[in-house]
Write a structure and sequence with these properties.
Glycerol-3-phosphate (1)-acyltransferase, globular, 48% helix, 13 helices, alpha/beta
Length: 313
């Protein structure tokens, strides 16, 4: 079962309250889902991944050029500290990181080696909701768009079902225009694509929490099983990655990427539940050991704070 399905199930169990911010987020999501430019970018990415799943070669920028572009973007605004990059194997690998901000995949891509070439599963609308993301990601490739409903959208749907008539029209718009992405065909398609990517020598970057955290040094548990299943099936290592400082962004802030020792498991075409559980527990322990439990947000002037915290949304 894919990471996406586990994430959907967990998000339904923890929905946000209905607030003006929730409603605004839902309206933005519906607008993105209706936007023809966004839909075309998503479809182009789907076509690329379908080519991979069928054993073909997708369209993508060179790893070196992609890293240079990402590094130029990130280093324009932030100072970056990288710890233990030598722990990244020069072989197909899954990078599994905690998730605090939409900057996280761009930050990691700016510092990891150009080879293997890392692919990133990500929320389809979030990937392409801004013009600069459409330009950069459309050119670079290397993304697997996941069609899914946001927790804010699920909250509106559930509230409408519970009798909030003023949300009925908004809930109907979600049902009509926002795909769930949870059908079995989509899930199998994602699984085939990931296995093909790893089999041909490329890597994956996965955020197993499945959603953004709100507190530095903490994990959103339980971790999704997909990351362990992919690693066990392909026989590739998982490298735990701790991201520190990305929850609140401002100009010239120091962001830290801390790589852990690779976690290696025996390859298994059909992993048993206990094998998946063991791998997930090892990953969870490794991530907890890498995170800074006593992180303190620096004091002082925080220039461009609002801009940078919203730039990567």
């Amino acid at each position: 079962m894919s990471t996406q399905l586990h994430n959907t199930q967990r998000e339904q169990n923890l929905l946000p309250p209905i607030t003006p911010a929730t409603i605004q987020r839902v309206r933005e999501g519906i607008a993105a889902s209706r936007d023809r430019t966004v839909r075309q970018c998503i479809q182009n990415a789907f076509d690329n991944i379908e080519t991979i799943a069928q054993g073909g070669c997708d369209r993508r920028a060179s790893g070196w050029l992609r890293r240079w572009v990402m590094r130029s973007l990130i280093h324009t605004f932030f100072r970056v500290r990288v710890e233990h990059p030598e722990r990244i194997p020069q072989e197909p690998t899954i990078l599994a990181a905690n998730h605090l901000s939409h900057i996280d995949p761009f930050l990691i891509l700016s510092e990891v080696p150009a080879h293997p070439y890392y692919y990133i599963p990500g929320d389809a609308r979030t990937l392409y909701n801004r013009w600069w993301k459409r330009q950069v990601l459309g050119w670079a490739g290397g993304v697997i768009p996941l069609e899914r409903r946001w927790k804010e959208e699920m909250a509106v749907i559930e509230a409408a079902k519970a009798g909030c008539n003023d949300l009925a029209d908004l809930a109907a718009a979600i049902e009509q225009d926002v795909p769930t992405g949870a059908d079995i065909h989509t899930l199998r398609w994602i699984d085939r694509a990931v296995q093909a990517i790893l089999a041909r020598g490329d890597g994956m970057m996965i955020f197993p929490e499945g959603k953004l955290g709100s507190v530095e040094g903490q994990l959103q548990l339980p971790l999704a099983r997909g990351v362990a299943i992919y690693a066990l099936r392909a026989g590739v290592p998982i490298v735990p990655v701790a991201l520190i400082g990305t929850q609140d962004l401002y100009f010239r802030k120091e962001l830290t990427i801390r790589f852990g020792e690779p976690l290696r498991f025996s390859q298994c075409d059909r992993p048993k539940p206990q094998e998946v559980k063991t791998a997930l527990e090892a990953l969870q322990d490794a991530l907890m050991g890498l995170l800074s439990k006593d992180y303190q947000e620096p004091n002082g002037l925080k220039l461009l704070r609002y801009f940078l915290n919203h730039f990567f949304w």
